[in-house]
Amino acid sequence: MVLPSGLPxxxxxxxxxxxxxxxxxxxxxxxxxxxxxxxxEGRRSPLQRQVQSxxxxxxxxxxxxxxxxxxxxxxxxxxFGLPPRVVASTSSSTSTSSSSSTSTSTSTSTRxxxxxxxxxxxxxxxxxxxxxxxxxxxxxxACLIVWLVGVFDREPAREPLKITYREWDIxxxxxxxYSEPIVLRPMxxxxxxxxxxxxxxxxxxxxxxxxxxxxxxxxxxxxxxxILPHYSYLNxxxxxxxxxxxxxxxxxxxxxxxxxxxxxxxxxxxxxxKYVDLPDFLDAEVEFAEAIQERFVDIYLIGPGKSSPxxxxxRAKGPGDVYSAYKPLRQExxxxxxxxxxxxxIALINANPATIDGPPGLIDLVxxxxxxxxxxxxxxxxxxxxxxxxxxxxxxxxxxxxxDEVEYSNLVSNAVSxxxxxxxxxxxxxxxxxxxxxxxxxxxxxxxAMAVDLADMVTFVSxxxxxxxxxxxxxxxxxxxxxxxxxxxxxRGHFAGITNGIDFTDLSKNPFVSPLLVERGVAYxxxxxxxxxxxxxxxxxxxxxxxxxxxxxxxxxxLPLHFSADDLRRPLLLFIGRxxxxxxxxxxxxxxxxxxxxxxxxxxxxxxxxxxxHQFDARLVVMGAxxxxxxxxxxxxxxxxxxxxxxxxxxxxxxxxWGSMIRMASDFSFVPSFSEAFGLVAAEGLxxxxxxxxxxVGGLAEFLVPFDRTTKKPFSVGNAHLFQLYGGVGPGExxxxxxxxxxxxxDKARPSLEQLAPAIRRCxxxxxxAIRGWQERAHDWARVEQERFVRRLVTHALELSWDRPRGPVxxxxxRVSRARPVGGRAHWVDHHPHPPxxxxxxxPPTNGAHLPxxxxxxxxxxxxxxAQAPIVAHLLPEPASSKGRNGSGSTKKGxxxxxxxxxxxxxxxxxxxxxxxxxxxxxxxxxxxxxxASPHRRPKSGPKQNKAKSAARRRK
Length: 956
Prior knowledge:
Layout: H1 35-42, H2 46-79, H3 100-106, H4 110-119, H5 126-152, E1 188-193, H6 204-219, E2 222-229, H7 238-241, E3 244-255, E4 261-277, H8 288-291, E5 293-302, H9 331-351, E6 365-369, H10 375-386, E7 394-399, H11 404-407, E8 410-411, H12 412-415, H13 427-433, E9 440-441, E10 444-445, H14 447-454, E11 457-460, H15 463-470, H16 483-491, E12 495-497, H17 515-520, H18 534-537, H19 544-558, E13 572-579, H20 588-607, E14 619-626, H21 631-640, E15 645-648, H22 654-665, E16 668-671, H23 680-687, E17 692-694, E18 720-722, H24 753-780, H25 783-798, H26 808-818, H27 827-831, H28 872-875, H29 899-902, H30 909-918, H31 943-955
Parallel strand pairs: 1-2, 1-6, 2-5, 6-7, 7-11, 11-12, 13-14, 13-16, 14-15, 16-17, 17-18
Antiparallel strand pairs: 3-4, 4-5, 8-10, 9-10
Helix pairs in contact: 9-10, 10-13, 10-14, 14-16, 19-22, 23-25
């Protein structure tokens, strides 16, 4: 029997006689000990030796119980005819073949020994029990701490949104005036503020801004740079991490829960981002590889804070993670931290331009992109109000959509942590603070409307939508929040729509110079600027149609699991975008069901011996990133319609590797969006020679022209198959032109299936017509007419370049020059050159004392039809005086001054604001009733009051 370490071995029983057991004696052998062990035992005290001997005796007794249990088990199994229990022995207990049976029955491993002890009721040693309890207690405490942190750090639930009804005027749209010359000093310094740009591009905003910055940098009129969050993954990109260098360290103010202003250190780095200056890629005589020049744009990276919770800001695993927030930092705090730090950095550059490593000179203009950066406008105006001598840049604010940006909000409880207490501000800055309640609804601050009011110029990314907004033809959800502000800017001529363009410097999306297409020999030939030259239409070596056909063959050979040989005889419809309801993902399944039904019909004709001429067939390819549309639904479509549906999501690198090849092989660009500001995907589809199947909403109407069925087909000037999203606007079913009022209703961004049923029928009809048109072009048209058709689509896309005459770059430069005259002041300051003098402060209500900012909005004023004017008098500080509130010195006894009263701590602005917006005020009706005494006021105390008290005591 093998015993635990430290126990004396037990000799097996000795038998005497003819197989019968006469006497059994157990002899305990003295275990052999090393010299070190004997020396340690000699040093023990008698008491320690006694304790050790008792412990050894208990363990030996336990071993005897184990042996007795085993013998009882063996006897029981023999009685009932059961096979003996097999006990696994350790490798160390097997010695020789003669003693194998003895060791198997008498030895167990340590693990088996502990299991046997628990089976016969022998408890673990005390030290194991103590360790187990300590471990379990530690785990329980850790779980409790995590739960408490999650409970107390959770943002309060948002109240049901109540919007004050406000009317606004219908203003005729006036575009930028080109008659006046552009007046700009040489290399005017412009800085863009955004969450996406260049290496941190996630969606359309990043693509658009990257293209705009590159085009402005190439124009030579502006000195352009970008302010961007310092996302953590940028440090792991080999080409970028060596270009990042620290240039400054800011002290960003933050108001804690006690109302104390603290400053958190924030590092700012500079990244010299490299971009490619493309030559004339259409000219065949230009050696493209040698003509490419590398240029740089400075990106200033606002880093995370050096203390909790701001140390967790801007953690991101990649471009798709730039809008995520990681605990313990809240999402709104991350946005407010970036806005506050950006304003501090701009002020630092203008105060000390020589100390910042970068281009010299002051910042003339700040261009804000998106509602998440709208608070930068407030912080800049606050700096202007605090210091009239400071150099403040002009502000341009661009709305990139009419859905998400308008609905973006910050809880007031989060916003007040980044607003300095009102007692620390100048009177003009306090006047700016009084306007904040105009943008607060149901304890939520909506910064988009505030940025529209505080900006010197406001733009939208589509000229047609900008005109429809101001003239009342475009409606969208929660428009009451922002339309009064847009109408006010339009009256001043400070609201304009500027249509975007296509970025040809992105090599992966340029069919003429894409590295993958050039390597595989399927790129468009470079034949000059005149793509419709008749001399080149008949040359097979310069064929655009042949390049698209070869690209489709490359896809079939390289990706056999996603494409098949049938795709050479049918068109490919390509959808590119985020998987969300607003992009029209609900149109996928009806189209696939229509294609499957057509396949069944064709199979029935073949069974009857009739061959279907030009079989109606197609494949829908969906490529993009996950969003609010369930990815399970798309995977279900992949399983149900494997022959007609291909899904390429963002979980693999297939988009980055084969994206340009898939674009080249596609025959249609499918854009069934419910709303589009510009429609970059549709424009890029035209660049790759694919006509567009779309709803034609929003900015798509500016460059999409529907095919005219009454014209001779080879000479049709259209470039798109359009269908109406809502209502019957347009000539005929499914052929309506964009621009109808119902098609512009972006507030129906997620209708029910019943509401969407007519649009689904129109979509299927248009898709069927597009497939038949493709079959007709492929089989009935001459090769020259096919070539002219594809080249005309590419020509339409080339006309959408950023530097086209009166294009985005020229309009943006004109917008910059009109933003604010040299030496001018912001319009909000011009309306109030001097703050109004404080009026006599009335008696405050019982529960309304010391509420300096947001008291003017409550449940009563939110349902009124007219907005109430801000109560400026309640928000301005009291004039300094040695006398008390009632005209006499406040004393504790008598009439002398008391330092205790004068130094009494006032409630902080932050704590008061949080109280106001997270609990209902119990005394709201006191505003309209009689005045009650405030519990915060001390009783009157002065000479007259003291004499009256003395006379009363004498009478007693």
